[in-house]
Amino acid sequence: MDQSASHVKVEDIEAALADVGEIKAARVVASNDGVIQEVHVLALPTKQPKQLVRDIESTLMAQFGIPIDHKKISIALLGRDSIKPESSAPVETEAGRTTVVRPRILSINATVTGVQASASVELEIGGNEFVGHSSGPASQTGRLRLVALATLDAVSQYSDTAVSFALEDVAILKLGREKVAVSCIALVSSLGEQTFSGSAMVRQNDNDSVVRATLDAINRRMGFLTTA
Q: What is the SS3 string spanning 35-93?
């Protein structure tokens, strides 16, 4: 596989990395022939460095098709006092108490009947439960898309604003000895369109990881769903 970054701008790679959860800034150093030599990242201390390295590897592979040696990635963590609710997750206030709004997975169901498949994902968001549904052709890639679409359907039910999601793509990638789910989501609102990516290591099964990758792409935008 081509390990050169010559087919993309370094600035585009840095922008993609800066959009990964916890990462506040990124700097990429490439050789004259476009091979990435160093990746320097400044991140919040809310995730283990090893997981951040995996997220960086997944992002480079999913968005640009560029594999990278983990030894070339340098992580610098900010101090704990740098963590603010608005920088790491949206918040809502109840009775003077500030809490982080993060969807929690309650159940995932995927079935195939003949040539058709369906998926349902139940999430708890802000103390309420939402069940998303989707159905379509039972192709291998299609079944993964249905799980991601059901996840977005559940999150959309939480929203009380004119915001909609579009699933750009979802896939299970092989990185070394690991499998990683990667999801690319477009958020469309009156302010325009923004595209985000999320990833999750495959630990339990593909469907669980697809849900987690999809939520990873939109978690930092949860507050926007009720304030836009």
A: EEEEEEEEECCCCCHHHHHHHHHHHHHHHHCCCCCHHHEEEEECCHHHCCHHHHCCEEE
Helix, strand, coil share (%) of the chain residues, nearest 5: 30, 40, 25
The parent domain of residue 146 ranges over 101-227
Binned at pLDDT 50, 70 and 90, residue 160 comes out as low
Q: Does residue 214 belong to any structural domain of this protein?
A: yes
Q: Is the pLDDT of residue 83 over 70?
A: no
* Distances in whole angstroms, Cα of residue 14 to Cα of each of 45, 64, 70, 171, 198: 19, 12, 16, 22, 16
User: In this structure, is residue 88 part of a structural domain?
Assistant: no
Tell me which residue of 2, 26, 29 sits closest to 16, measured CA to CA.
Answer: 26
The model's pLDDT over 102-138, given as tens digits with 9 standing for 90+, comes to 788 999 999 999 899 999 999 998 888 999 999 998 8
Kindly state whether residues 106 and 213 are assigned to the same domain: yes
Q: How far apart are CA 34 and CA 7, in angstroms?
A: 8
